[in-house]
Amino acid sequence: MKNIFLKFKDRKFIIYYLCVLLVFQTSVFILLKVFSFQSTKTRSIGQNLIKGFNKDKVISLIFSDSKNTFSLEKEGGLWFVNINDKIIPGDNGKIDFYLEILKELSSGIIRDSSEGSETFKKYGLSEENMRKLKIVSDKKKDFILYIGNTGKKKGTSYIRLENEKMIREVNSLISAETNIIPVQWLERRVFPETINTEDVQTCEIRSNFDWFNESYTIKYNPQKDGGIFILDPDPGKKFKPDILQNLLKNIFELKIDDYKLDVDITDRERSASITINLKNGKSNRLYFFKSGPDDGRYIIDTDFNDYLYIVDNIKIKKILLPVKELIALEID
């Protein structure tokens, strides 16, 4: 009887042990499945969306929405904006940054796979709201991407691939950085960044504006400590060392509002001019014309490129300062 009891007790223990072992193995199996799924999901999210993308091979970016179409085109290593067959210099720094965004674009996660106009509208991917981007490489391979709204999570965007109904959420600023307004991609600086105040020998300012009708020259005056800029004719007042230098800096950093296309200024009266004479013997000139009657904007022409620029009155008054305004900033 005792032996039977022991055998029964041993059997009960063995069954209990096997049950515990089964639970443990099942838990391990589930955990492995979960980690495997998460690992696969992570790899999927991290995969590059545009396989083999090389930004140096891209020759064109074509943007379009329900109203407009324009393109960025690369020629001779530089980017230009094509607006209605008008080729205008592009902002190469901005475009290079955008190409980096495309390079880092991941596959993301599938946020919604249901079809229908309401679904697309929710994510900014309806026909009326989406932005279409066509990427063209020198290998004649095209990649089309549809760009929607920015995501609810900071730094994310909703996108959709061509011939794909699924909506992806990606960790990218592509939605915020995809601007369909062509002027936002233009080179806005009049002078190249390679020119600065240290290169200036003289700056001649001539103006016939109602609010500034006079002429003067800013001259570089060598000194033992490196030199300063002085005003000619001498106004009889001392200036803070950086006043004239800051005025020159404003001229070199002038940014336009737009390009003026299909306009002939041959017969227009010149309102002002700025002539920059550099220490290397070269010169650069800006000519100012009224854009229209009382519209508060001006046309700028230069002698170093073939473009006409539009600049508003506020920016003009930062680079064309009457002597009395300079004197108001003097030391004594």
Q: Explain this structure to me?
A:
This protein has two domains: 55-185, Immunoglobulin-like (Sandwich); 197-327, Immunoglobulin-like, CATH 2.60.40. Helices cover 27% and strands 30% of the residues. It is built from seven helices and 17 strands. The chain has a nine-stranded antiparallel sheet. An eight-stranded antiparallel sheet has the order 12-11-10-14-15-16-17-13. Strand 11 (215-221) and strand 12 form a beta hairpin. The protein is elongated, with a radius of gyration of 33 Å. The protein starts with a helix and ends in a 5-residue tail after the last helix. The model is unreliable at 4-8 and 34-44 (pLDDT under 50).
Query: How many strand elements?
Result: 17
Low-confidence segments: 4-8, 34-44
Sequence of strands across the biggest β-sheet: 4-3-2-1-6-7-8-9-5
Q: What is the succession of H and E elements?
A: HEEEEHEHEEEEHEEEHEEEEEHH
The CATH class of the largest domain, by name, is Mainly Beta
Q: Which band does the percent of strand residues land in?
A: 25-35%
Task: Round the Cα radius of gyration to an integer and report it.
Answer: 33 Å
